[in-house]
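Quarterly update from the structural biology core.
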Amino acid sequence: MPAITLTDVVKTYPPREKGAAPLTAVDGVSLEIADGEIFGIIGYSGAGKSTLVRLINALEPTTSGRIEIDGRPVTGLRERELRGVRAGIGMIFQQFNLFSSKTVWGNVEFPLKAAGVPKADHQRRISELLHFVGLADKAHARPDQLSGGQKQRVGIARALATSPGVLLADEATSALDPETTQEVLALLRRVNAELGITIVVITHEMDVIKSIADRVAVMDRGRVVEIGRTFEVFSAPREASTRRFVSTVVAGSPEGDDLAALRRRHEGRLVTVRVSEGGVDQQQVFGVLARHGVRFEIVFGGIDEIGGRTFGTLTLALTGADGDVSAAVAELGAAATELPASPTTEAAPVRPAHDAEAR
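Predicted structure, tokenized:
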């Protein structure tokens, strides 16, 4: 049974101005999130991902559609019934949302009091959680004495206090520096692996998704436009929204001014090759070119990694006999795309290549 099931979920808000149309924040979303997986939801601001989170933890009602947590319907429940559902869902936030007047201990204790957990059980549970997140020595500190990473660790401990089956992380690393982000993501992986908790990570950061998510859904204008295993979605993106996210970490095929600038700087035919495990890898590409006696220079693109598997695009300037170049491109098949001689796409600034750039 999936941990979370959404079926044709819609959320609309009244118009902001008289005579305007209602605002549809979530538009017919259907998802199944497996028990025990780390599931990513990625989208730019306004995509509807944070609204979707509030629907999952029943902080807001759906306009239509159905949401189930562990097979139990959430939609249509009364407030008193929803309290029990929310107790099984932990939540961590971008801005930590800690009580400044309480110590670390007091912040972690708060949900235990709210859930009616017997006072006698508090000390054991809080101590257990603070050791788990590595903050046992900060039990009596207040939030303003902590770093951003420490505050988020307190947030995670608090979210785990009532032993939830699901943990929702809404932009939980957006306020952190890259090193601290990786530390928090490593802690979330421990939560998932050691406690078996299903984690839903909502973010606009590609690096977060590729570091932690088993599967990912890409949202755009309230809809899920692409979904699948993280490697498959980002190594071969079908939708424009997904390609924009991938381009934030790996440059794709050059267009517009990028392509025009490359043509001015490099002789030969420009060909973009998509490389990935399970498809054509770099060694195969270079082997094909060598067999046909084609010289090459890597002029654009880059390679990245998800879960130890590499993917990316390389744009090559190929020189040699015209027939040899054509034969090599043909052998590479669907992985290779020869770029047009006269670019007509919208201009974009030249970006440097990433790991695979020729220096």
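The CA atoms of residues 187 and 292 lie 49 Å apart.
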